[in-house]
Amino acid sequence: MKRNIVIATIAAAALVSGGTATAFALGGDDEPSAAGKSSVQVKDDDGRTFDDRDDAYDDDRDDQDDRNDAREDAREDAREDAREARGDKAENAAEAKGAKVSAAEAIAAALKATPGAAVSADLDDDNGGLVWDVDVVGKDGRTWHSVQIDPGTGTVLGSHVERDDDGDDAAEDARVAAAVKGASVSAGEAAKAAGGKGAVTSVDVDDDAARVGSWNVETTSADGTESHWNVDLNTGKVTVDRTDD
Predict the structure, then answer these.
(1) pTM surpassing 0.85?
(2) How far is the C-alpha of 188 from the C-alpha of 194, rounded, in Å?
(3) 106 in Cβ contact with 154 (< 8 Å)
(4) Predicted confidence (pLDDT) per residue in 159-189, tens digit
(5) How many CA atoms lie within 13 A of 47 on its CB side?
(6) Are 90 and 54 within 8 A, CB to CB?
(7) CA-to-CA separations, 134 to 125, 155, 222, 237, 242, in angstroms, rounded
(8) First to last CA, the chain
(9) DSSP string of 65-111, one letter each residue
C-alpha cells in the first residue's frame, strides 16, 4: 500500500568501492536523510539490464513482422512470449538470489531504525539496484515511514515520512494500522512462516477484503517461479492465495 510522498526525493550519498557500500549516517524522519546506493546491482550475463534485453526482443519481433506472413507472425509472437517469460523468471531468480538479507531481517533492521509496526516489505528494483522498501507505522499509530534497506548488507540506506495530505487513504490506513497492531503474527513472523515455500520477496497486509485477516506473502523459487501465499494474522497458518489463480 502506497501513499503520495510529499517529502523531496532523497539524494544518493553512499560511496561504493570494491563491491561494498558505505552509507552516511541517517538523520531523523522529519529531516532530510542521506540515502545510499544499493550494493546489489542485478544485470544479465552480457552486462545489459533485463529491460535492455526486453527492448532487443521487441526490436527483433518488429523485424520479423515486416518479413513474415500472418501465420509466421503468430508463431513469432508465441516464441516472443516464451522468451519474455523465461526472461522474467531469470530476472526474478537473479533478484531473489541477490538478496542476501531476508525479508524478516530487512524488517528487523527497519524497525530498529524506526520503531513501530511493519506493514509491508518489498524487494524493489531501484534503477538497477535492489532495495528492501519497508513500510512502518510509528508507535503513534498514525505516522507512516518508508525505510530502505540494502539487501546485500542490511544497511539502512534512507527513510522518509509518507503523508496523505488529501485524506483519501485515512480510513484504510487506520483500519490496516489497527489490524497490524492487534495481530498475533507480525510481518517478520509471516515472512518466516512462508520462508519454506521459497525466497520471500514481498510481505503486505491483505486489505482487499472488508476484514483484514491475513498477510499476503510472495515467494520466488530457484527457477524464478513466483507464488503467492496467505499467512493468517492470528494463527500464522500458511495457505495458497487463490485470488491469483
Answers:
(1) no
(2) 10
(3) yes
(4) 999 877 676 778 888 888 888 988 999 999 9
(5) 0
(6) no
(7) 14, 13, 24, 23, 25
(8) 21
(9) HHHS-HHHHHHHHHHHHHHHHHHHHHHHHHHHHH--S-HHHHHHHHH
